[in-house]
Amino acid sequence: MSSSQFQSFTDKRVPFHHLNPYSFPNPQTHMPPRSYSPISLSLGMPDTQLFSSTPFSPPRFSPCFHPLDNLGEIRTLNSVRELHAQMLKTPNKGSFVTMDGSMIRYYFEFGDFISAIKVFFVGFARNYFLWNSFLEEFESFGGDPHEILVVFMGLHKKGVEFDSKALTVVLKICLILMELWVGLEIHACMVKRGLNVDSHLSCALINLYEKCWSIDCANQVFHETPHKENFLWNTIVIANLRSERWGNALELFRSMQSSYAKATAGTIVKLLQACGKIRALNEGKQIHGYVLKFGLVSNTLICNSIISMYSKNNRLKLARAVFDSMEDRNLSSWNSIISSYAAEGCLNDALDFFQELKSSSIKPDIITWNSLLSGHLLQGSYEMVLTNFRSLQSAGFKPDSCSVTSALQAIIELGFFSFGKQIHGYIMRNKLDYDVYVCTSLVDMYIKNDCLDKAQSVFHYTKSKNICAWNSLISGYSFKGQFIDAEKLMNQMEEEGIEPDLVTWNSLVSGYSMWGRSEEALAVINRIKNLGFTPNVVSWTAMISGSSQNENYWDALQFFSQMQAENVKPNSTTICSLLRACAGLSLLKRGEEIHCFSMKFGFLDDIYIATALIDMYSKAGKLKVAHEVFMRIQEKTLPCWNCIMMGYATYGHGEEVMMLFANMCETGIRPDAITFTALLSGCKNSGLVDEGWKYFDRMMTDYNIIPRIEHYSCMVDLLGKAGFLDEALDFIQTMPIKPDASIWGALLASCRIHKDINLAEIAARNLFKLELYNSGNYISMMNIYSSLNKWEDVEHLRDSMIALGLERLDVWSWTQVNQTIHVFSTKGKPHPEEGEIYFELYQLISEIQKLGYVPDVSCVYQNIDDNEKEKVLLSHTEKLAMTYGLMKTKGGSPIRVVKNTRICHDCHTAAKYISLARNREIFLGAGGRFHHFMNGKCSCNDCW
Questions:
Q1: Confidence class for position 295, pLDDT limits 50, 70, 90
Q2: How many other CB atoms sit within 10 Å of the CB of residue 928?
Q3: 794, 782 contact by CB (below 8 A)
Q4: Each residue of 893-909: pLDDT tens digit?
Q5: I need a labelling partner for 581 at 20 to 30 A (CA). Which of 49, 78, 204, 527 fits?
Q6: Weakest-pLDDT range from 27-41, 251-265, 563-577, 715-729
Q7: How far is 553 from 578, CA to CA, in rounded Å?
Q8: Cα separation of 48 and 27, whole Å?
Q9: In this structure, are residues 54 and 97 in contact, taking their beta carbons and an 8 Å threshold?
Q10: Residue 66 and residue 69: Cα distance in Å, rounded?
Q11: Going by DSSP bridges, is the β-strand pair 929-934/895-899 parallel, antiparallel, or unpaired?
């Protein structure tokens, strides 16, 4: 038995120290228990009652016999036994305390632990102080605590009846040694002798059953004890709290009050902690009332627990009121209120408390600083985490494992890996690598920095690898796509006796899904089921999120259907990933269903879901609803502003984008690179050249944001579409970064509009070098040649495509009618109702021709006559989708069409006339732009 075990054993005796250990006679006989001499038991001597239940008194020595006088004669174990026999024959019983203490010591010294234990068990009546002294000395001589139980059972079988105090101590030894069966025998003895009325014995039995068997058995012992004293009530409440039976513990506390039993301060503190953990605000308030009723508000520890309970239940005002009412605050009080405000994101208030603390007589400690670090980390203020990390060092504090872990996590988010290496050096110098959470954060940092070898090295030298450390490294290899290495690590993990858990398997699911390998990810899901685990929300969300990131939107929605079939409740991340899938497909109806899900599960206040809703509605053709969602957000974040600005930019509402930008700046939010992408997109989609230049220049001058390739692409597109093709080429040639395919693609698209063959060929040559196998570039150039009747050049490019094995893009459009997606494709199967659709389209074209529509045959890039070109125009997929929508939807509802390429000029004109002729709104998403046709006009103002 270790020193810590004995100390724990000693600490558990505190409730009994104030009791008179001699005031509890045998409950059956009302007489003292019988005791037997160890010598008489071992040598077969007649049973002799040695002493009565006389209360303990200081040792008195007989004038005719002094056992210590014979100390010099003690040479062997036999001489000890002879001395013991002489002492038993002494008529004066007043010196038995000294006698027994001497004999125990002699037996210890000669290694006869059995005899020592027997002397102690059958000597005079024991109290808890003597038990503690005996156990400490027993350990110091190297005794095995199991021998105590062996001797106890031996004496019990010989007929020795122990009193309740002895049985209580034996039960506590059973608890330390986790010896349930001995405890069960004692319980049986208690029932047989009627000792189950003893509250001390019941307490010891409750603790033993709770630790070694089940809390239900412990509760049964409590309910079967007739006389429930205060300490018994407190014991059963604490036992239920330890077993996380929160509801049962709170119900017992209610019954405790009805029985007029008084809770200890320790019980109240534990109950308050439970109320904070399970968010039981009402119960916490009742306990607070109990504290006020019994005048316990002077207990600082209880008040600190009340503050923590209110803060964890999101009641900072109540926590603050308790803190303000405290007369005697200690450092823990200050740390409780600071950590409460920091955890809830009220960092300014937390800092105010921190400054007030520094100006008081109480000085902050490392826990105070760690509260600020964790608060900033939770709120995503990663720069402030590192600032405070330096400040705590400047204040003379030495960062501990908690400080270092927060700093490493901030470094991971910011990508400041050089600073992370410095902290790694600090960890090694100060020997903090013993902490598995520090090492896990280091592993994670090196993984995120693409340093898997260093992550492996840190992991290898981690002494106490727990499952979190293994999962971190396995996750790292999975996210890097190194699945063979991840599987090897899992095998090593099992060889070292650690079984993979659901987190381990989920990291594989997430890795495969993120790398677009949905089939392997689904296979891992099936392996999870075969191993007896149940795939949880993390498992399915990983599948959905990975599919959405890889633009496999239909797969993401299918996985969600499977998730629902298995009754797994989605979380906020699931909802965000699903909304991303709906946005990618412009699936309005399905997006509206997901919106209902978010309302059902109470996610409407989630800022990430609100932002995803703005994006989904914008891309599904409901910009007005997207704006309504945006306006309902109380605390608008930068991503919210960026999302709504990009939505308006996509529809060509450049003026509105600029107004939103001005409003955002007035709120004090600083723009980022994404903000300027939205601004420049709004300008280019609305033809606002001067405004575009203004915002491009302000990026560096006003906000110190270095333009990225997407900003340069917007400027080339803006200049080119406005007809400033030479300026666009000069802009490309003077760019500080190398132009990519998006830059030359923007120039080529502008050349196609303005039919500038020379610049088009320059752009095409660069595109063919960068993207040799992108058939879209060849098609665009062929269309430019055909528009200028350069048919030989068209054939030359067609031959080049054949030589490279390239095919024309599959152009498609779709519309949704009654929850069914109807696709119209240039390569796919014809629609089942194709005949009826063309019949309706012929009538529609005749109708809009009367309104002024003239087919634009220049949009047909084939060497055929104009009559044939007009027939080709009728087969454009967006016209077929619009016509089918008109046929199948009634009541003036809008027609929504999605196309995978840019809309041609003829279809754009036809859509305007159709909206006028049939008095219907038409939303058409095509090539990254949205067109809203209504009353013969388009939202893009013919600038696309």
A1: confident
A2: 12
A3: yes
A4: 889 899 888 888 899 99
A5: 527
A6: 27-41
A7: 8
A8: 22
A9: no
A10: 5
A11: unpaired
Does an H or E element contain 930, and which? strand 929-934
Provide the β-strand partners of residue 922: 895, 933
CB 34 within 8 A of CB 123: no
**Burial environment of residue 809 by CB neighbours within 10 A (0 to 12, 13 to 18, 19 or more):** middle
Please determine, for residue 364, whether its predicted confidence score (pLDDT) is greater than 60: yes
| Tokens of residue 174, six digits | 């059973």
CA distance 683 to 667: 23
Q: Token pair 């600032």 is at which residue? A: 387
AA letter at 508: L
Cβ atoms of 899 and 878 within 8 Å: the answer is: yes
pLDDT in tens, 823-870: 999 887 889 999 999 999 999 999 999 999 999 888 888 888 888 888
DSSP reduced 3-state for 639: helix
* Residue with the two structure tokens 């494709």: 825
The answer to whether the beta carbons of residues 612 and 579 sit under 8 Å apart is yes
Q: Is the entire prediction scored with pTM above 0.70? A: no
- The Cα 879–Cα 876 span in angstroms is 6
Could you report how far apart the first and last alpha carbons of the chain are, in Å?
Answer: 82
Query: Which residue type is seen at 154?
Result: G
> Which amino acid, 502?
L
Contacts of 593 (CB under 8 A, 6+ apart): none
Distance (Å, rounded) from C-alpha 709 to C-alpha 673?
Answer: 11
CA angle 770, 771, 775 (to 5 degrees): 155
Report yes or no: 919 and 912 within 8 Å, Cβ to Cβ.
no
